[in-house]
């Protein structure tokens, strides 16, 4: 073999050896990283799923449903301790006949209970022994007339003190909880049933922030394996597969969601639940694997390019070996950095919600630093656009977190030694509003300052509470939690009878004056949101009571009156109430005084039947359920005389009739029968009316009869 052929052979062997070695090394490395990425991703999904399941279970059972159960049981237990004042106690044992005022008062109690517990669609009490129903919206004299009549008819077949899922008469999915009345007396026969209905859609809206993507699914099953409700994408095939996981008693399993798309399903067994419910969370793998799969493809492509490039370089460099593995590692570091950035965003959202997986995020836990969370609600634009404006503005130290398209949060980093002044954060957010302009309009609520990163969820919670004050201060405002704590928590007192009297009299001017005073008092009273909402609820209840008394129920909306009238802001709510009040006064003026005449007729009948008893405006006002001053006005308009003049005239005319009809009946007995306890006073009033004493009047009338006989 010649020297040239020998060198050529060595050269070819070198190239072949390098190629084989490159393929083996790069293939082994690529395969190893491929397996590692898949395994780590599956483990992280399973851990994240279990943490979210436990947080969802605590939120639903220990916070939301537990609150409803406690409030309902407290309401029921109050019957036994407030025997004289409990409207419900009286209705349980006496029925509704003759107790309409108690019915309406209890209806108002149910409305207050419903408004005070967010998420409740209705509160009902079914009285089987007297066959009627009272709920937060209406009173049904017969159960058959109630919208939920089929449900009440099966009440004795439904388990008590357990949450059941059903569809109500409005085709809304609700969770219902029933207790027997009287409460806590297992031996006694049920006098009634207390039922609360919780909107499943409301529960879903509370739980949905725990889902990281639109295709995540959270399914909750009762102890029999039936689906209570599910949050996220709804797919019957996926629900069946999740049921198979429950039957197989698996803690986690890789399942197929849509055709050809894998995912991870995790199960929290019913033994962890007070209600024996099972929680299952399914998360499609592509929401995590999309970038990972791209990384894998790029990894294989890079390996192939490296092999080809190495062969080409081996031709050029001959015996010199070089494998550009450093470029591969550089690319991998870049891709992993992107993955970490996305993971950090998820971790920050979990931190706000109180379900963070990491014990101590180094980027958040800073020495000598306190924290404050601001919640942002966009009224125009999206959170990503606002984030770009935030990064360009000279903001205070903090981190912007886009929760979804319309909501965001900012975690501010504050110096611990410095006195906290929320006005600095208010000014910072207002500056961001000016920079964002109308293309990304928003309103913001600032929570309280916390000293430890573990308390950030508490700051986020107080910011969420502060968001409610946008109802008072209006849209696109910036409100700090500290400023709301200085507001007055005492209830605001109003003379709602002035508003009621004005409505019944059809006096729109007086109605507007009351509404203007009401709005000014709420805005200038520096009251907390609970006091303002209570005052608005009382006003709506007064409006509802007037509509019932005037028999104008047909003017009420088909939906709940409170939900129909309450708007996003206080000004909007007052205007909607003012509009309905104008419709009522217009109807009163157009329809004449027919309702007034009916009231006057009722009062006249009562006076005629009770002449022998003590009569007063207060007694009469209770009979017709109107204010004494308004009763006096109606009586004067209807009889053209005052209440006292009318009663005196009627009593004396009745006494004159008795003097003639019963000659043997004494004057003192007649005086007592017409309501006079003092005979001398009766004599003076009778003489002032007829010009003679009662005895003289009887003699004159008897003599006149004798004369006619002759």
Automatic annotation (TrEMBL):
One annotated GO molecular function: sequence-specific DNA binding
All copies of domain HTH araC/xylS-type, residue ranges: 601-700
Organism expressing this protein natively: Paenibacillus oralis
Family matches, as InterPro entries: Homeodomain-like_sf, HTH_AraC, HTH_AraC-typ_CS, Tscrpt_reg_AraC-type_HTH
Keywords from the named record: DNA-binding, Membrane, Transcription, Transcription regulation, Transmembrane, Transmembrane helix
Protein name listed in UniProt: AraC family transcriptional regulator
PANTHER family: ARAC-FAMILY TRANSCRIPTIONAL REGULATOR, HTH-TYPE TRANSCRIPTIONAL ACTIVATOR RHAS
PROSITE patterns tied to this protein: HTH_ARAC_FAMILY_1 (PS00041), HTH_ARAC_FAMILY_2 (PS01124)
